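Subject — a protein and its fold
Encoding — discrete vocabulary of local shapes:
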Amino acid sequence: FEQKYHDLEVEKLWKKVWQMACRLDDIPEIGDYILYRVANIEYIVVRTGENEVKAHRNACMHRGRKLVDTPPGAKNGGGKARKSFVCGFHGWTYGLDGKCKFIPHKDDWQGSLTSENTSLGPVKAETWGGWVWINMDPDAGPLREYLEPIATRLDPFEFDKMRYRFRFWGI
């Protein structure tokens, strides 16, 4: 293992491609979320509406502390019916949409905090085949375009109606 190759792979590959983060079944209700990690970068994938899913970096915009921790001994984290994500360090609070809803002592910042510099960095999130896919590249094209021509060939199999029976989270 050479760190320089790993770093290049993260920068040139993992931050540029669409990745399957979870099944829609993993987050069936509004406020349900799951953590997805690749190359030591962690994302919160959250159901925000009946047909809407969002993804955000799992890091507070103030000090970078994780908003959601993976339970000790678990391979992944997730939860049910969240209304917000609260940083355990200073209490900055984010809505499911990633917008910062509360900052303690916001007046101390003398107006320098804006929606743009306090909201969680958005990550593209789209669905296909019952999966939630994410892409960290703000310039990435649509998921369907990325998946073609295989998406059209696989659509008749109705992957969105399939369910898995076993899931291995890795070591």
Summary: The chain has a mean pLDDT of 91.
